[in-house]
Amino acid sequence: YYLLYPLREYFFIFNVFRYITFRAAFASVFAFLITVCFAPPIIRKLQELNVGEKIRKKHCPGLYDLHKDKQGTPTMGGILLLVGVFASTLLWADIKNDFVLLALMVTGWLGGIGFIDDYRKLTAKSKSGKRGLNKRTKLLTQVIAGLIIGIFLYMNPETNSFLEVPFFKELAIDLGIFYIPFVVLVITAASNAV
Prior knowledge:
It is a single chain. By secondary structure, the chain is mainly alpha-helical. The chain has six helices and four strands, in the order ααααββαββα. It has helices at residues 20-48, 61-67, 78-92, 98-123, 135-155, 179-193; strands at residues 125-126, 129-130, 162-164, 172-174. The strands form two sheets. A two-stranded antiparallel sheet has the order 1-2. A hairpin with a 2-residue loop joins β1 and β2 (129-130). It starts with 19 loop residues before the first helix and ends with a helix.
């Protein structure tokens, strides 16, 4: 973005870089291409390192029958997605924008939680088998991320605390201070859903 947009003074075609829709579309394509290009070698390397999913049979035999085909599936694949998102964002977005930096920070934070969870599953052993981060720790770190975003958005003069309801143009609910717990709920729920 910072390399090509200034060229608009010399070539009119580079003026398209000022449009967010253009940059978002190309950022998506670029992130997809990075992921597709780097996926095979990274997956091969993870398989060589034996960084694979371990399915525990003794804890839940019924679930084991449904998930046994996942045995050996490389874990830590989130790194590939994070590389695609970060590289694409750094190349195509206006990184001086506070909201872009906030999104990158929270993506890195939640990606770090996933990395630590996967790393602990691979290296730490407990009496009952390999486990990642406990549920409380994961939830607490997600809530902290949600609080950071919620407080930032609530305090930022460029945003408001209105919840706009889709398909109803005139319906917008001012959540006030409750905007912060709403953001925490959305971030935590979305993080767990993903």
